[in-house]
Amino acid sequence: MAVLDIHLGAPALQMQTEVVVTLPETPPPAGGYPTLYLLHGLGDDGTAWTRWTGIERYAEQHGIAVVMPSGGRSFYTDEAHGLRWWTWIADELPERLGGMLNLNRSRETTFVAGLSMGGYGAFKLALRHPERFAAAASLSGALGWARRMPTPEWPDELRELRHTVLGEADATDTDEDVLHLLGRTPVAELPALYLACGEQDYLVEENLAFLAQAEVLGVPIERNLRPGEHEWGFWDAEIPRVLDWLPLSR
């Protein structure tokens, strides 16, 4: 695999930003490489997956390109008081890289996954744009983010983060709320969904709530709830399972 560290201008951000890409060295199939957009968690950047997991090796075994953008602390949102990260990653980035790297942009060969903040972002991308993604995976996803409202116990850092990203209003039942988005598209038109979370993860209740909502709506989800915490060992074990699960042509 070739590992590319790309720095390019993002019109929506009005600045330069970084994207890490692992790209097969074999000639692309007709139409271009199948592509997984792989999103990092809060506090990391686009290099995290290549530093902390074997994603390069796993992707090589499947002949898939992996695009890992830096998303700041944005929860992959056009921030209320910040930058337009959603517009960059959802709209501009695929357009920019598709032709540059010969990526196949058809729905059948385009997938998204992420961990924690990135798991939330992956499901948000897939549920807001089901016409673009054949499958989406959330690992330890912060799936209740949009429904969290500040309490007196919140530290100042978390309070400021929510203000920057979502503002002061309750984001429940908006386009930022993945539980709401789950019911917006007919089940037959949804991407395939994969959810994994450790049973000792502090986000497990949010994941169970998402699964419960899916059951109410009749949305099938491939799930893996097992012993584990919110840490890289869990995610490094899960991402090969995600790649095996993707509907790739073998």
Main sheet record = 8 strands, mixed
**On the 0-100 scale, what is the average pLDDT?**
97
CATH architecture: 3-Layer(aba) Sandwich
Number of strands: 8
The CATH C-level class name: Alpha Beta
CATH fold topology: Rossmann fold
State the separation between the terminal residues, measured CA to CA.
18 Å
H/E series: EEEHHEHEHEHHEHEH
Radius of gyration: 17 Å
Q: What count of helical segments does DSSP give?
A: 8
Number of domains: 1
- Residue stretches low in confidence (pLDDT < 50, at least 5 long) are none
Please estimate the helix content: 25-40%
CATH superfamily assignment? Answer: Alpha/Beta hydrolase fold, catalytic domain
Walk across the major sheet and give the strand order: 1-2-4-3-5-6-7-8
Q: Strand share of the residues?
A: 15-25%
Shape: globular
Brief overview:
With 250 residues, the chain is of the alpha/beta class. It is 34% helix and 20% strand.
